[in-house]
Amino acid sequence: xxxxxxxxxxxxxxxxxxxxxxxxxxxxxxxxxxxxxxxxxxxxxxxxxxxxxxxxxxxxxxxxxxxxxxxxxxxxxxxxxxxxxxxxxxxxxxxxxxxxxxxxxxxxxxxxxxxxxxxxxxxxxxxxxxxxxxxxxxxxxxxxxxxxxxxxxxxxxxxxxxxxxxxxxxxxxxxxxxxxxxxxxxxxxxxxxxxxxxxxxxxxxxxxxxxxxxxxxxxxxxxxxxxxxxxxxxxxxxxxxxxxxxxxxxxxxxxxxxxxxxxxxx
Length: 266
Description:
The chain is mainly β and 266 residues long. 12% of the residues lie in helices and 41% in strands. The protein contains two helices and 16 strands. Strands 4-1-7-8 form a four-stranded mixed β-sheet, with no helix packed on it. A four-stranded antiparallel β-sheet has the order 3-2-5-6, with no helix packed on it. A four-stranded mixed β-sheet has the order 12-9-15-16, with no helix packed on it. Strand 2 and strand 3 form a beta hairpin. The model is unreliable at 1-27 (pLDDT under 50).
């Protein structure tokens, strides 16, 4: 009798085994993954923008509307998106909150944990950044100087002073035409080679050929910003491609750093 019961239990366990395996496979299929989604750039329209990823909508009900991008402002959207492992064609959509028109749509990468998208929207259309390929012998810096008041060319330089009054200036780019992308080669200038040096420096924007005629609104506060946190190349660094969009804002010059911070010691 005991042998019979044991045999019956063994048969039942064998019968349940396929269901257990199916259950495990189902769990694997439905396993969630996560992706960091970052969109940087500029919203030059008079309307606020709303983001969605597949069925997840980052509207005014999400975190008190923090994800809604204000009109005429730099754009820094960041969200952690969770999705089933088997989901294909994950899609980011940007919508005009007033007209309800979809102004941008892009499928996110099928794999990986990061998705970074640059989006500059001016005069009702996207302005592509088209960054150059990386060069192992130098760094490529891109500047978009948004100036709605003037098309006069601009010089861009690093500037800092020492406690003894000595001044140091190093040009990043000269004769830059505003409202479009300009790319330059750059290696760390002698007096700006370390993080400490850069943290004490400003990036200044002046009318070409001058050092004190401010490019934006003839206003110093609207024409310079701290170099801290901009991750300009340091001594020995090469092969970086980094884009910056700058524009006058309500409280001073604003910047959108349009690249993921490279994994390097700072």
